[in-house]
Amino acid sequence: RPRVSARIAGITPSATLAVDAKAKALKAEGRPVIGFGAGQPDFPTPDHVVEAAAAAVHDRSNHGYTAAAGLPELREAIAAKTLRDSGFQCAASQVLVTNGGKQAVYSAFATLLDPGDEVLLLAPYWTTYPESITLAGGVPVQVTADESTGYRVTVDQLEAARTERTKVLLFNSPSNPTGAVYPREQVEAIGRWAAEHDIWVITDEIYEHLVYDDVKAESLPAVVPEMADRTLILNGVAKTYSMTGWRVGWIVGPQDVIKAAASFQSHLCGNVANISQRAALAAVAGPLDVVHEMREAFDARRRRIVSLLSEIPGVECPTPEGAFYAYPSVKAVLGKEIRGQRPKDTVELADLILREAEVAVVPGEAFGTPGYFRFSYALAEKDLVEGVTRVADLLAEAR
Ligand code: PLP
After folding, report:
1. Hey, is 97 helix, strand or coil?
2. What residues are in contact with ligand 1 under a 6 Å CB criterion?
3. Quick one: 154 and 298 in the same domain?
4. What is the number of structural domains in the chain?
5. Are 304 and 310 within 8 A, CB to CB?
6. What is the residue with the minimal CA distance to atom 7 of ligand 1?
7. Which of 31-45, 106-120, 148-162 has the lowest mean pLDDT?
8. How many CB atoms lie within 10 A of CB 121?
9. Which of 126, 276, 324 for mutating ligand 1's site (highest number of atoms within 8 Å of CB)?
10. Would you say residue 308 lies in a domain?
11. pLDDT in tens, 75-106
12. What does the buried/exposed string (b/e) look like for 220-251 if buried means 16 or more CB atoms within 10 Å of the residue's CB?
């Protein structure tokens, strides 16, 4: 018998973490690597959050377990924040606090899916989604959009992919990896289509506050209220408050589903670290001005990276409207000769760029769409300019 179960052996390791690890290893050897791989803001966690956590550590009443579904005060604050930011009204009992948005993704699928249930997965997708769906026994059905539509799928495409087994549509706007944001009319059309066909929606809103140019991230169950009873909203503090390492996320959904997911969580991990929940409470109940400052900084870098990438021959970069990623197509460069090599796909080209230009980018293969690179612009502007310039200089050699 195999030592590792087929279920776990079948997981593809996270490609974004792999690129980051390669870049870190080169850096440790003293190489001047510039990394565009990281999916985390490069700002410190806000002071008032750190102070709340420090006070919580010294208060011994925070040293025990909390309820599996989370601290009651935090669940209340998340319900209030959901109304403030998404315009969606819910009770504290409709909130489950999870170990980061990642666990919210897995728990949502584990709670909704039976073996063979199909999930419409909009591509380019975040690397973790298909693995979570498969682990939970579901079948990911990829629906792909390219740069010609700003990486947004249409209802016609969804309808063409729908079968008797379709149970869930996974929606993520603003998107990782493309930064695409669906406008209200499109969210409404997709929500109505889901309602008509009794399809559940899992909507990942983790980048809701990182939107630019007066664009607004719309929350599907607020736009289409009849979907409220069949939608799970996923969110967390990682991206909004620069709290990736604190590991707090959540699911908002109908009470029966949240109760079931909380029962699962009570066996899976008990509860999220009490101190982290206190920190998250300070974050979600606190002001958004620090968030707006981070957004300004990201916006300046966004403009810079899009303009630099667009100048490279063979690179096509739609302007992302949200998150902190640019997702250019480099299809025109593939198959050409660069420094004696002819990369045939973006995995090979990313490897060549890391070796020859000492710049780390994540190949589109990690997001279900070969032919693209994801550049995270969560790095200092000076490094951003230096990194893209190195890539431009290398690709200029393509013949
Ligand atoms: N959802 C999306 C789209 C993400 O990009 C991420 C992080 O990269 C997450 C969820 C989960 O974030 P975390 O587990 O750090 O809260």
Report:
1. strand
2. 39, 100-102, 126, 172, 176, 204, 206, 236, 238, 244, 249
3. no
4. 2
5. no
6. 39
7. 31-45
8. 23
9. 126
10. yes
11. 999 999 999 999 999 999 999 999 999 999 99
12. bbbbbeebbebbbbbbbbbbbbbbbebbbbbb
DSSP track, 253-274 = --HHHHHHHHHHHHHHTSSS-H
Is 201 contained in some domain? yes
Q: Which of 220, 254, 285 is the last residue of a domain?
A: 285
Residue with CA closest to ligand 1 atom 5: 176
Distance (angstroms) between ligand 1 centre and the Cα of 307 equals 27
Quote the CA–CA distance of 98 and 270 in Å, as a whole number. Answer: 10
Q: Which residues pair with 168 in a beta bridge?
A: 119, 200
- Sheet of 325-326: strands edge to edge? 325-326, 373-376, 362-363
Rounded to 5 degrees, what are φ and ψ at 154?
-105, 165
Shared domain for 277 and 369, answered yes or no, is no
pTM for the predicted model, two decimal places: 0.96
Instruction: Give the number of the atom of ligand 1 that is nearest the alpha carbon of residue 105.
Output: 10
pLDDT (tens digit per residue) in 181-237? 999 999 999 999 999 999 999 999 999 999 999 999 999 999 999 999 999 999 999
ipTM: 0.98
Determine the distance separating the centroid of ligand 1 and the alpha carbon of 132, expressed in angstroms: 13
Task: Let me know whether 130 and 95 are in one domain.
Answer: yes
Pocket test for ligand 1, best of 239, 272, 325 (most atoms within 8 A of CB): 239
| Boundaries of domain holding 256 | 47-285
